Amino acid sequence: MLLYCSLVLAQDDVDVPETERTSKTQSCFPDMWDFLKEFGAMTEKQRVMETRLKDGETRLKDAETRLKDSETRLKDSENQILELKSKEKTVVVFSAAAGGSGHIGPFNTDTTVVYKVVKTNIGNAYSQFTGTFAAPVPGIYYFTFFYHAGGSQRVSLTLIKNNESVVTTYDHTTSHDGADNGGNAVFLQLQQGDQVYVRLGANTHVWGDNFITTFSGFLVSQV
Amino acid sequence: MLLYCSLVLAQDDVDVPETERTSKTQSCFPDMWDFLKEFGAMTEKQRVMETRLKDGETRLKDAETRLKDSETRLKDSENQILELKSKEKTVVVFSAAAGGSGHIGPFNTDTTVVYKVVKTNIGNAYSQFTGTFAAPVPGIYYFTFFYHAGGSQRVSLTLIKNNESVVTTYDHTTSHDGADNGGNAVFLQLQQGDQVYVRLGANTHVWGDNFITTFSGFLVSQV
Amino acid sequence: MLLYCSLVLAQDDVDVPETERTSKTQSCFPDMWDFLKEFGAMTEKQRVMETRLKDGETRLKDAETRLKDSETRLKDSENQILELKSKEKTVVVFSAAAGGSGHIGPFNTDTTVVYKVVKTNIGNAYSQFTGTFAAPVPGIYYFTFFYHAGGSQRVSLTLIKNNESVVTTYDHTTSHDGADNGGNAVFLQLQQGDQVYVRLGANTHVWGDNFITTFSGFLVSQV
Asked: Of A218, B140, A221, B141, which Cα lies nearest the Cα of C85?
């Protein structure tokens, strides 16, 4: 009987009809049959689970690699956005008028025009006390200046970058007491700290009243 | 024999040589030995799988946390990009010329110059019917205007922001029927809806022909 | 005895006190009891692990979906950043002065002014040899030009886009040998390759010395 039972353990369980098989096994190990079925199912389930686990681990490893890659790219994108926003936020713009009440000059030496009435000064790069603009960041800047002057004296205005003449405007003495208007404009590539200002030539003059003689500039692009 | 078998179950399977062991067990439970080996292997496999599963769960939890963090950062980056693109897309630029055929003015009161010939009007912020520019978004704007005029009358042009004079250009009557040219420029910080226009002073004139008397502006930066 | 053992297999192991149960089972299968406990624990563990595995697989699938979505969004963000940076990097700016030493003109036909002294030429879109600016990218551009001229001749400068007059500045002959200043500015929407230059009218002149007669432009916005 024991041998029979062991044979049952040994042989495959497919050849014997279910009813007969059950009665026979139950006569010695009534539950061994179920146990073996259970064990077989468990073994099969473990095989399946191992495959699923292996598959899950592979997918997880792949997901981790992709995630790490995404995190690196995301960090890079965040840095680039920060840089774009930082450049966008670097607004440098100024406009100032000479102000005063009447002629500025003539002086017997070249003199920086101090545009005293600030209209706009975003970034605070222009000084209304010295008349000088100092580039807060390296970049391309635009400058333009306009003047009005009576005709009794010459006019000579030169935009200076550090000590270099960039663009100029001037006018001769006009007979019959007419008036002169003029101006100029330029785009300049500046290094941080470069100074730009308008110089009134010796023995020339401009008119300071009514926001008519002006100096303006702005940062076009950081480079 | 059963006891012997049970002993086989009980004792560790390392002491008996493989050949002898197999013959002995097969005499009672021919497959029990294999079964026990299988069960032992299954137990060990389960232990290993559990460790792998636990490890996988830990890694998955970590990946989920990182993924959630990445998603939050990505959303934030997307919003910042949208903001940058929105600002980039807000292009406000106009240029218009006075047009007409001859003198504009003199009028006996201050009069807004209506620059009728639009050269550019991206953003449609300038009205060729009223001569007024209305800021569509808050920001820093640049304005510049130029004029030509015969010398028989004075010229007075003032850039007005709402009701405030910002910059001006003017010229006296010139004897001998000469001609006058002039202009000015300014950067202005505007609120949405602020109105900017050029006012021709009472009893002064400009020349409207040939795109010579112009008014231009653009949005430098949203703030 | 075998039947007894099989009964042990069959019956639930909860009703018999631990000590008695152990002694009884050990009398036939000394380790079967432990084995069965182990098997039961293993079955239960497998059930739990299967639940955890299923749960892990669900979470992994979800994470993979979210990761794929994040990767798509990240790629999209990266492309948008590239576009923003590309536009930011497209800096087109030039300023040039007529140069020379004295009058340019009068000529008996309309002549392009060749501003020979380059002050700035980022993007190399302006040619100091032809005086022509060619738009390297489609966009909104700003141009401004200023001149100085003696009064002995008329002045007529017109900014030309391809063959179309855009804005102009001119001045009459001035008696008493005075001097003339003037300029203009305009924003223009250009297609790639559009050419912009300043034309000196036939029988008119400007002064080329001292960086006083200038031509400048820049790309405001790509569109």
From this structure: A221
